[in-house]
Each structure stands twice: as C-alpha cells, then as structure tokens.
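Sequence in, structure out.
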Amino acid sequence: MTTDSLFDVSQEIVLITGSSGQLGGEYAKIFLERGANVIGLDVRPSTDSDSLSVRYPKRYLFCASDVTVKASLQRALIKITSKFGTPTVLINNAAIDSPPSAPPEETGPFEDYPEASWDKVIDVNLKGVHLCCQVFGAAMAKAKKGSIVNISSIYGVVSPDQNLYDYRRNRGEVFYKPVAYSASKSGVLNLTRYLAVYWAKQNVRVNSLTIAGVFNNQEQAFLDAYCGRIPVGRMANVDEYNGSILYLSSKASCYMTGTNIVIDGGWTAI
C-alpha cells in the first residue's frame, strides 16, 4: 500500500451536514477534488453549493433537509441511495451558535439564558448528530462499512474563556459566551464514544474532530483578544482541518475508533 492509497477517498460516498456553511463547503470541495461522490445536506443551498452542482453534476448532490427532523433525514437517505448507494462517510458538521449580533438576552448572564435558546442550539448541535447517526449511521452499519466524523469544538473540551469578551463589557455591553454551544459540543464527544463501541463489530468507525475558531473577518477587537490567547497567535484558515478530515475518512485511520482528535493551535494545551 502506497502513501497515496492510504488517503484515497475516490471510492467513498461522503455525506456532509451543514454543507452550506464555511467549513461544510470546504469539506465538500476537498472530497470532490479527490474523486469522491459527495452529498451536501443543509436546510438550503449556498452559492458555493450551487456552483458544485454545476461543476460536478455526476458526483455532487445537494439534499435540502433538516437535521432536527428524522423524517426529513429518512427522505434524504432514499434520495441519496437512489443516486449513489449507501453513504460510506458521514461528516456531522451542522451546528449553530449565538452570533455576535445575537439579542442581549442570549448573551447575558448564565442565570438569565433563555430556555428557547438552549433548546434551539441543543436541537441542531446534539440532537441533530444523534438523528443523523440513527438514520445514516444505521444504514452504514447494515452495509457493514463506514466512517463517521463528528465535529466538536474546543468549547466542548474546555470552558469558553470569558476574558476574551472583556472588550465588549468594557464598552458597556453585557456579554458572555452562552452555555448551550459548549454543552452541545461536549455531548457530541461522548455520543461519539458510545457509537464507536456500539457499531465496532459492524465495521463502522466513529471518531470526533475538535477544532478551534476559523478566521471569517471577525471584529478586530475579538481577533486581538483571541490571537493573544492562542499559542500559535492566529485563528485557523478555512483549509487547515482538511488533512484531519481526509485522515478520519480514509484507510489511513482504519484502526481508529472512539477517538477525539484535537486540532486547535495549542488552545487546550494551556
């Protein structure tokens, strides 16, 4: 086996949730460039997704689906299998967080965090992974082949550093990084371990990838605080998780399951 064949994904059928987002779109591109059949799944297509459909009409399929609704995912599975067959790789990438522009009640003190905001984030970030594994992972287990990669976050491993947001409080805002995102991403880590054991004998590997923040033209004051905290001194570029995604999706990681790979610029090392 050559080094290249270790990372060969040209025969894979890769399903990526949250494909219309910054990272989901990037993951779709790297698999398509390497010959895989790719399904992008999101509530609506992005401009990039439409472009991929034009560029790779035979190997790219967009499925409009909601990860929080099991029946929607079941319909997507029928559509996917009719075109490509059973997925062999599932990247559970779909996630939401409270954006910087979120209303004050979402970014205020923990004691006042709205129940509705908690439910919305947990529904997508944790329940969504659970349902996608139930639907697509079960199909993989039946076929006795597959690799599932659940995307987690540094904030699922360690607490958010609330000091990063001092610049907002110093200008009179009441701002704290909300709790739901951290709780949801922590839950993803143990769901990964559970399923790794549960499906081990069905030849379905389940691992998680814990990532740090990705540069996306954030406010300069935030960048100054974040980059001053992280050992490498910068946020990740959008393509810097590609190698890990390919590794976890290919033969190169064939003896790995139940593992969490942390790619975070040293954030959790201090």
